[in-house]
Amino acid sequence: MKRGFASDNNSGIHPEILRAIDSANEGHAVGYGGDPVTEMAVQRFKQEFGEDIEVFFVFNGTGANVLGLSTLTHSFNSVICADTAHIQTDECGAPEKFTGCKLLPVETIKGKISPVGIRRYLHGFDFEHHSQPKIISISQVTELGTLYTVEEIRAITDLAHEYGLYVHMDGARLANAAVALDLPFRAFTVDAGVDVLSFGGTKNGMMMGEAVVFFNPELTKNTKYIRKQSMQLYSKMRFVSCQFLAYFNDELWKKNATHSNKMARLLEQEVKKIPTIQITQEVKANGVFAIVPSKIIPQLQEKYFFYVWDEQRSEVRWMTSFDTEEEDIINFAALIKSLV
Predict the structure, then answer these.
(1) In the chain, is it the N or the C terminus that has fewer CB atoms within a 10 Å radius of its CB?
(2) Measured on CA atoms in the order 79, 177, 114, 189, is the torsion positive or negative?
(3) Do 290 and 235 belong together in one domain?
(4) pLDDT tens for residues 113-123?
(5) What's the whole-model pTM score?
């Protein structure tokens, strides 16, 4: 398949990640995370986020979100999130099924929620007829390609902790956020008051596997059981953890995310030259949202596959990846121009 702009999930695996998997394939190792490679990966996470954390490796992003939410809730709780949140729109009801919790969607401003929108759900505490709010979940990068500032995250975590709630961050594109903000991971996660993080790598050059990072080990007494019961405990764990070692080594994560973000800005720059194309969101990371004449969308998709975000508005989403090339963008923009 030609490199398109549908999703950074469609990209390949970075060669360094493949080499790490091949290296981990030598000999035998204790399963289920009892191997030295997994221990080294955990220690590497501690270098990034601090010693007082617990890390659990899982298969995928949905599994990471479900494990993080399940650890901190009971079925009578509720989770406050953006109406565009991945857990709300794109995980086939998995968070509700496995946690038993209600999801309470907040209308977003450019993909972000704020304390004003959250407060409408902060009621009914200690009232048995009302689901009990327990977690506020935010995405960084958001589903609209926008970013929370550290100050915006801190405002949400302060409000959450005032009411005894936790804050979960869906960090499927956390590397892209770190590059765009020009900040270390911990500056806008643990240091900003986040309680649990879904740390993604698959969208940025890894083959598979995500990590759930808890910033208070006291919260994780039952997490290992929940991970097993929710079918997210990988027997040959070293093949996930070795990828994270390569991912952190020489800041591969940063190189990949820097490139994909740069390609998104180039794509924005090129399509802005076409009068009939309207960019709808500020391009902060590796996503470009645009309104395109509906009649040309099928023709574009035949050559460079991508998804329609909002059919009524004829709004599309174009995602760039660590392996997107400038030539892809120049040719794509030229095709759009020729069709309009």
Answers:
(1) N
(2) positive
(3) no
(4) 999 999 999 99
(5) 0.96
